[in-house]
Amino acid sequence: AQFTKKFNEWMLEQENYQGTQKEKAIGWRVLEINVQRNLTGVQTQLFDSPLEVQEQHKSFSQIAPAAEYFLNENYEIPYFYGFARLASLASYNVEQFIEIAGYLFDEIISKSQLDHLTTLTPYEQEALIKKIARKYWDDIPRSVPNGVLVSKFITEICKMAHEQTMRPTAPYLPGVTGIGITTSNYFKLHDTGMQKLKPHYSEIAEVLQSCISYNILRPEYGYKQGQKGKTTHVVLQLNRLLCAHFGMPLG
């Protein structure tokens, strides 16, 4: 931004912002994302005049969760802590929620007996949650049908998701946490006639079935994006414990 005056008003406002250190850090990271978006846009301006502050405000609430995640990722600040994140980690699964909460509760009881403290720091909470997530991940090859293939499949999804999430312009807010496939292609994979013509369809269908049956992927059917009448998709959202294991946001 040093080569243009476009962002002077944005930076001045951020410099004068009064808030907590965390709020200020998120504000600067939001500003950086907005600058990246503006500089990579297709439209160019004839005059190098400062942009209005309102343009920065419009997207702040949407970008802030991504900005927080970027900060956590770049500076190794805890992300997986607090009740809201704990609830998100449950992936619409009550048993999973109770299991995670149980581990945290046991740790608090143990700490209170040893150190007479009844709280866990964000670092301690995240370390414990990642330990639970690692156990969940390590159990997949042993406890899930086609477990080895499922692990390979999920690993590739998470690699792609992390690469897309960390793009400087943060195009997917707050980050990528799943994949989509057109409804027609999804049903082709499960069609026995198509499986005879293309045997690998059967293997893919079995892997998807294992993922869905064991709550590794949560399907949303008939998803539409944009205009009415557009192609529908099956969206497959990752179990949020996998997001914790692979260090991804909880969008």
Describe this structure in words.
- The chain is mainly alpha-helical and 251 residues long.
- It is built from twelve helices and three strands.
- The protein has a three-stranded antiparallel beta sheet.
- It is flat, with a radius of gyration of 22 Å.
- It starts with 7 loop residues before the first helix and ends in a 5-residue tail after the last helix.
The profile of the biggest β sheet is:
3 strands, antiparallel
Arrangement of strands in the largest sheet: 1-3-2
Low-confidence segments: none
Residue share in helix? 55-70%
What is the N-to-C order of secondary-structure elements (H for helix, E for strand)? Answer: HHHHHHHHEHHHEEH
Determine the mean pLDDT.
88
Indicate the radius of gyration in whole angstroms.
22 Å
Secondary-structure content class = mainly alpha
| Shape estimate | flat
Number of E-state strands: 3
What share of residues are in beta strands?
5-15%
Number of helices: 12
Separation of termini? 29 Å
Summarize the structure.
The chain has 251 residues and is mainly alpha-helical.
Give the secondary structure arrangement, pairings included.
Elements: H1 8-16, H2 21-39, H3 53-58, H4 60-75, H5 83-89, H6 94-115, H7 122-143, H8 147-165, E1 178-182, H9 183-190, H10 192-197, H11 199-213, E2 217-223, E3 233-238, H12 240-246
Antiparallel strand pairs: 1-3, 2-3
